[in-house]
Amino acid sequence: MQLHKYEKIWLSFGIASLVFFLLLLGYGAFYKGTHPQSHAETIDPNHVEANVSFQPEHLGLNKIAENRYVVNIVASTFNYDFGKDENGNPVKNIRIPKGSNVLFQVTTKDVVHGFNAAGTNVNMIVEPGYVSSYETVLDKPGVYTILCNEYCGLGHHMMYATLEVYE
Amino acid sequence: MGITKTKDQQRFQEMQLMIPKSDAKMYMSFIYVAFAALLIGGLMGLLQTLVRSGKFTLPFGIGYYQILTVHGVMLGLILTTYFIIGFQYALMGKTVGISQKQKKAAWASFWVMVTGTLLTSGTILLGKASVLYTFYAPLQAHPAFYFGLALLVIGSWISCFVNWRQLYVWKKKHPGEKSPLPAFMVVINMTMWFIATLGVASTVVIQFIPWSLGYAATIDVLISRTLFWYFGHPLVYFWLLPAYMAWYVIIPKIIGGKIFSDSLARMAFILFLFFSIPVGFHHQLTEPGISPTWKFVQVCLTFMVVIPSLMTAFSMFAVFEITGRKKGFKGLFGWFKHLPWKDVRFLAPFIGMVAFIPGGAGGIINASHQMNEVVHNTIWVTGHFHLTVATTVILTFFGISYWLIPHLTGRKLTPQINRLGIIQTIIWTVGMTIMSGSMHIEGLLGAPRRSAFSTYGGTAQAHEWAYYQLAQAVGGSILFIGIVLMVYIFIKLAFFAPRGNEAFPIAEEDANAQPTPMFLENWKLWVVITVALILVAYTIPFVDMIQHAPPGSPPFTMPIGNN
After folding, report:
1. Partner-chain residue, chosen from B369, B451, B461, that has the shortest CB–CB distance to A119
2. CATH number for A123
3. Quick one: A13 and A59 in the same domain?
4. To 10 degrees, what angle do helices B344-366 and B415-444 make?
5. Considering only alpha carbons, which residue of chain A is nearest residue B374?
6. Does A81 share its domain with A144?
């Protein structure tokens, strides 16, 4: 099989760029730890409370140290459970100071959901039987829409909350 | 070992097989269904963009997700599969012939597929299967939906067997000769389709059907999704390869040129067979329960298709330039200026090729491991596949229709219809640029795909997204005009155009072309390598999923209104 000279140049350039690109992705993933969410922890979707993180008192925002937070969320059709505030109302907005290190832990009691803080890289599929988790530093102030981005049923687009990063 | 010239010429004469009327009827049956699906699915697409603009609500209690399911199933599964199978039969019939027995089996394939299609569509229309075309568990549709899908796949398998048999019989009669290029390509595509659909067939038959009938109490969600995406990515190459067939074999003839390189075309198709299937994890990059290392392995395998894509791009432009220079066009770009821009059989597929440049670049972003989380399940992805499948593939299929349909119905593509076709192509290009462009931008701003209109509690972000959704409704409306025009052209070509002989354009090799090496026809080797790559990419993570499986999921029918 014979290749035209220009085609050899074209393909060599293409393949070299491809290798360079994959090395770059691999470097980011394996040395900088930027792998996509791939948490392997399992959970019984019928008894999510068996995992201490998803007991009612631990849902929502938990401050664990200066500038370190854990946010636990239970998703179900068509709601994110961030726990309740002092008045017993469901929390729909969480506020986190700029520059904090935040760990999001999400699981579902029923079907597959998405968990995306739109405009950030916090973007996960939440599957029954698994805990999805994502650790990040939130350093851009603003109000971000948290929404379900994996179809979960007729009320899918009504499943949302907000995340506020303040100065 | 090469093949002598005289044999080549002899072979090419045989490629000019006439298509008898009764064969043409069979090929056309598939194409009728495809265009019916285009009209229904297209109308649903229009309604979706209108609903999501926030300015329109659906009447009669029709649900957004119901029409979204119809849209995905009609255009993603029905239009594509039927058109491809019909077109591939025509290519096979033209180059290697079809026997009476094979034709009977092909009709059986058609009717099994139609039964499946009616079953699935009926269930969706009754509102019992608003699960979208990906039907992710544990959302549960009515069992008829899954039975219909199974029949659709089984019907397409009969076509696989027929196409394989057609080439096998031809090769027995022509020992030592290389197979005609179009037949080689069809067999590659059907081999890939068969291996890939084993995944979706096993999840439907082993997991979904028993579970939907109540024989199995629970379903393993991650395994069902993994089997789906084992099929879901090769599905897009199953759409793309017939477009490539037209680019490699048909377009050179239309512009008055020769095939650039027979062996290169075959090599590209073999590489697509290898690297289409062991790559499904790149649709599951943000999912829990799959090790990131295995995700990365499949990301690397995904990117191998860049190589045959670059080969194809080079071949296309080489054919354009060689043909133009042979015709005596001078200057650096003279050959480009004089391409047959006014021939819709060329223009529509050409715009398809151009759309594949941003389409392919977007695909690279989507599959880029950690970069995927920037766009995963945002409407960027919808914008992406409206460039690739709904522009590159569909405009090429339209380009094929302009000559294939009159060829099969014994009519002519008249200058008037050609002009209408050019207008159709321009409408499509404008509509898609607006719709897909605004989807891409809105996706980068974080807006989700597959969602009805929502203000998300009135956030500033959602307010900003609404402007792009308005633009999508404008683009979607323009596209729908394009669909109506295309259906009109189809009806004209099928029933009303003047009688005549429209050519079935198949390009020849150049007289001084290098002989094609015979190792390219080593089918056993190609299948063994394909299966080996699949086993490497999937065995360990799949065993891991089974061993570390969480408790299974019971059915959920309420969320989709199936109660």
Report:
1. B461
2. 2.60.40.420
3. no
4. 10
5. A121
6. yes
User: CA angle, corner B233, sides to B269 and B81, nearest 5?
Assistant: 75
- Cα nearest neighbour of A30 on chain B: B293
Contact between B463 and A145 (Cβ < 8 Å): no
Residue A144 lies in a domain: yes
Report chain B residues whose CB lies below 8 A from the CB of A144: 446, 461
Catalytic residue among B449, B490, B504, B542: B449
The candidate with the shortest Cα–Cα distance to B134, out of B220, B235, B46, B239, is B235
| pLDDT at residue number A57 | 92
**B1 pLDDT band (50/70/90 cuts)?**
very low
Most distant CA atoms of chain B, gap in Å? 74
How many residues are recorded in chain A? Answer: 167
- Residues of chain A found within 8 Å of residue B517, distances taken between Cβ atoms: 1
B407 catalytic, yes or no?
no
Are the beta carbons of A152 and B139 separated by less than 8 Å? yes
Q: Is residue B279 part of a domain?
A: yes
* Structural domain containing residue B299: 17-560
CA distance B342 to chain A (A): 29
Rg (CA), chain A: 20
Tokens of B20: 């008898």
- Name every chain A residue with its beta carbon within 8 A of the beta carbon of B138: 110-112, 128
pLDDT band per the 50, 70, 90 thresholds, residue B334: confident
* Selected residue of A127, A158, A164, A165 to mutate for chain B interface (largest B Cβ count, 10 A): A127
Average pLDDT score over residue span B181-194: 97
* CATH number, position B545: 1.20.210.10
Catalytic site residue B384?
A: yes
A42 part of a folded domain: no
Q: At what angle do helices B379-387 and B415-444 cross, to 10 degrees?
A: 160
* 3-state SS class at B194: helix
User: How many angstroms separate the CA atoms of B24 and B89, rounded?
Assistant: 9
Of the pLDDT bands very low, low, confident and very high (cuts 50, 70, 90), residue B2 is very low
For chain B, the straight-line distance linking the first and the last C-alpha, in angstroms and rounded, comes to: 64
Residue A131, domain member (yes or no): yes
Structural domain contains residue B164: yes
Domain shared by A11 and A58, yes or no: no
- Would you say residue B8 lies in a domain? no
Split at pLDDT 50, 70, 90, the class of B328 is confident
> Within this chain, do residues A99 and A157 fall inside the same structural domain, yes or no?
yes
Are residues A29 and A70 located together in one domain of the fold? no
Judge whether B147 and B212 are in contact, CB under 8 Å. no
> Helix/strand/coil (H, E, C) string of B429-464?
HHHHHHHHHHHHHHHHCCCECCCCCCCCCCCHHHHH
In chain A, the number of structural domains is 2
Q: What is the 3-state secondary structure (H, E, C) of A66-127?
A: CCEEEEEEEEECCEEECCECCCCCECCEEEEECCEEEEEEEEECCCCEEEEECCCCCEEEEC
CB contact under 8 A, A131 and B558: no
Does residue A95 belong to any structural domain of this protein? yes
Same domain, yes or no: A69 and A5: no
pLDDT at B10: 54
Domain count, chain B: 1
CB contact under 8 A, B300 and A22: yes
Residue of A116, A122, A143 with shortest CB distance to B448 = A116
For residue B138, cis peptide bond before it (omega within 30 degrees of 0): yes
> What is the C-alpha separation between A156 and A153, in angstroms, rounded?
5
Q: Do A100 and A149 sit in the same domain of this protein?
A: yes
Name the catalytic one among B376, B386, B407, B411. B386
Q: Note whether B224 and B65 are within 8 A (CB).
A: no
Domain that holds residue A31: 1-35
